[in-house]
Amino acid sequence: MSRNKSFYITTTLPYVNAEPHIGHALELIHADVMARYWREKLGDGNVFFNTGTDEHGQKIFEAAQKAGKDIKEYVDYYAGKFEQLKQVLNLSNDAFIRTTDENHIKATKEMWKLCKKDIYEKEFEGLYCVGCERFLAQRDLIDGKCHIHQTEPHRLKEKNWFFNFKKYEKNLLKYLENPDVIIPDWRREEAINFVKDGLEDFSISREKKQLSWGVPVPDDDTQIMYVWFDALTNYISTLGWPNDLNGDFKKFWEEGYIVQMAGKDQVRFQSLMWQAMLMSADIKTTDQIFYHGFINSGGQKMSKSLGNVISPYELIEKYGTDATRYLLLRHVHSTEDTDITWEKLDEWYTASLVNGLGNLVARIMQLAQTYLREAVEIDTESYPTEYSKLLQNFEINKAIDYIWHKIGKLDLFIQETKPWKSKDKNVIKKLVVQLLAIASLLKPFMPETSKAIKTTAITSKKPKNLFPRLR
User: Fold this and answer.
1) Tens-place pLDDT, residues 244-265
2) Catalytically annotated residue among 66, 304, 409, 461
3) Can 301 be counted among the known catalytic residues?
4) What is the pTM of this model?
5) Structural domain that includes position 429
6) Which residues contact 278 (CB under 8 A, 6 or more apart)?
7) Catalytic site residue 331?
8) Quick one: which of 416, 391, 405, 395 has its CA closest to 356?
9) Residue ranges with strand state E in 130-181
């Protein structure tokens, strides 16, 4: 990354067939932390953070029909719900792309044309999973059901366009040799093993008579593009590709360091299919993809039927934006699955924010307000090497643990020195300086809390309670 002057980061695009859940929020906040960190390192104009919504495909078409809604009205409603997350989660994304955007559709057709040498037509019969929006192989089944959605696929026979995936086995293995292309490394091993097991060419279109909602295949009005071929292209269409009138594609994709964020079930799509498409189109492959785990609740995967789904809007209503960011960033493991409940969330909020950071800020600033006549000057420092290394390795939990370790040490220093007894101004100034250092470290994670701490330090006034007690 050090050789690059620009940084590009993108989340996957969630389907707009339901309300946002905290898994979506987690990925968005992870990406936001990295974008904010690199802006501090490289400058605002040298970082591009993309997110958006995936709005085509059979799942969405069927969901709209089931809801009795016009398809465009349906996707507009749910896209709006995801776009609102920028405000409520305090995200700093530079773009919010929708796969129904006119420029994206043009870009998708151009990607098809560039990959045309690897596209051929054939009739195929197989087991199709609507949830995955693809044909399944036997290795994708457990007891005759899709291993991801636990549903029985239906047999489908169609004449479709296929992408010559098998052709890129050697190229993909060469790409995957680089230990930096996938984090964590065991996901890279997963991708390597998948390629070594043998790739199968995949269908990249559906018959229009079966599905009309999608991007038409160039020069074939009987077919609609496979939703993944369409959606994956967003990573470059959001930068203005292929025309690149503003030069963003050149700056952030061709010359920048590219990072994609995705869930652990996305390895095949993001690290294999998408990279093969880029190779076919003679476009630079992704530099790095980070895969996070899933969030479970009460020992079970979140689902509407079980009634254990937690909405990011519910979290924000109860805890506030920065506290929600903290809870997801520190207490949801970066790469493993994590189980959370409302009881655990309440416990973490009270212990680490109310009685931890909030109490520490109040104690130090009460001392400053009482004994310091002048505000402590802010000495801007660069991020510590250990902290930077953790973030650059996507060890997000450990990076925020690093901050809370400093919070604990500062709290212990107060107990040992008892400045309310000594009234030693030099000790109190030292406390404020260390608190400001913590505020700087908090900026990518909890930007408003960081700002509030810096503001109170400048004025030497005790702030309002940063984290109110739960009722």
Assistant:
1) 999 999 999 999 999 999 999 9
2) 304
3) yes
4) 0.92
5) 313-459
6) 284, 285, 286
7) no
8) 405
9) 134-136, 141-142, 145-146, 154-163
